[in-house]
Amino acid sequence: MKIAQAILREELVIFERKFKEAVKSQVPLLDRIMRFIVNRKGKQLRPMFVLLSAKLCGPVTEAAYRAASLVELLHAATLIHDDVVDASMERRGFFSAYALWKSKISVLVGDYLLSKGMLLALDHNDFRVLQILSDAIRRIPEGELLQMEKSRSLNLDEDVYFEIIGNKTASLLSSSCAAGAFASSNDEVVTDKLRRFGEKVGIAFQIKDDLFDYGSENVGKPTGNDIKEKKLTLPLIHTLNKVDKRTRRELIYIIKNQNKDPEKVQQVIKKVTETGGISYATEKMNQYRDEALAILYEFEDNDVRKGLEELVRYTTDRKY
Questions:
Q1: Nearest-CA neighbor of 285 among 135, 142, 170, 133?
Q2: Which of 176, 273, 179, 257 is nearest to 223 (CA)?
Q3: How far apart are CA 317 and CA 271, in angstroms?
Q4: Dist CA 73 CA 62 (whole Å)
Q5: DSSP code of 94?
Q6: Is 231 left (phi over 0), alpha (psi -120 to 50) or beta?
Q7: What's the distance, CA 182 to chain centroid?
Q8: pLDDT along the chain (320 residues), means of 10
Q9: Which residues pair with 95 in a beta bridge?
Q10: Max CA-CA distance within the chain?
């Protein structure tokens, strides 16, 4: 991400300062937790998409910085709530907020982050940006609940899978690009174009995450973790739809009843690899990446576009 980071060198410094200001609280416990969250932020992928989308369409305005902060607040809130739902003790190689402060405080902290994001936009009359990002706030829990419902029956086709990841993952990245575009341009046509661009990048990003479950790299979660959690991801869906009925029943039985047995999980992973599930998902991921790039190439060829292209390719080439 060297090109993107170089292009946004000054903007990221300003964003960091504004984000730290945005999460401050007068409650000592809450302020300590906010510092913990700020110090353990990830790669800032979504704020970079906001700021580069803004820069692609015009100057990086104060509204664009607020949009980037709002996106990071929403993302942090969803991660904290996810850790509570999954009872996850780790996040990015560190203790999660849930591990340190348990369910009640974590849920309230997530709620606080959501409210801070809303107020950040409302206090500055960024109504359209808030409307764009509110769509992601609605879609994320819808996708999570749909996934939970389908994981019980293990009856999931590709259309439902893409609906789930479109809501869970792609919606925030899509809204990030759209919010950045509108904040600097006030142009609905350009905003919609970057919304579609972000949606396709987000889908490619999630398929890459699915593929990590079948690899050997250390990516922050154990191989086969999705299978243990009964999550039907694209490589597995392809396999279940391709094998004969007897093999399908065997695989479903393992996922439902033997998903904690490492040998049985490896048996599923082996079958997915043998039946072309990995290559099929990789092909789909690259298809969405290329569709995103086709939209991006409609914009003028400049350094900002190159920075966005680098981020798109990072989503599918990354090692973790």
A1: 170
A2: 273
A3: 24
A4: 16
A5: E
A6: beta
A7: 21
A8: 92 94 90 86 88 97 96 93 87 84 94 94 96 94 89 80 94 97 97 98 96 66 74 91 93 91 92 95 97 98 97 91
A9: 90
A10: 61
Residue 145 vs residues 25, 33, 106, 266: alpha-carbon distances, Å: 31, 27, 20, 27
Q: Give the per-residue SS3 of 165-215.
A: HHHHHHHHHHHHHHHHHHHHHCCHHHHHHHHHHHHHHHHHHHHHHHHHCCC
* Residue type for position 250: E
pTM: 0.92
Residues 6 or more apart whose Cβ sits within 8 Å of residue 20: 38
CB burial readout 106-126, b (16+ within 10 A) else e: bbebbebbbebbbebbeeeeb
Handedness of CA 301, 306, 312, 316 (dihedral sign): positive
Q: Are 195 and 177 in contact (CB under 8 A)?
A: yes
Is the separation of the CB atoms in 271 and 243 below 8 Å? Answer: yes
Task: Report domain extents, the chain.
Answer: 2-317
Structure tokens belonging to residue 304: 């900002």
> Residue 2: CB partners within 8 Å, gap ≥ 6?
310
Distances in Å between the alpha carbon of 228 and those of 157, 216, 247? 19, 16, 18
Instruction: At 227, list the tokens.
Output: 């299978």
Q: Which amino acid is at 9?
A: R
Chain centroid to Cα 49, Å, comes to 12
Q: Domain 2-317 classified CATH 1.10.600.10?
A: yes
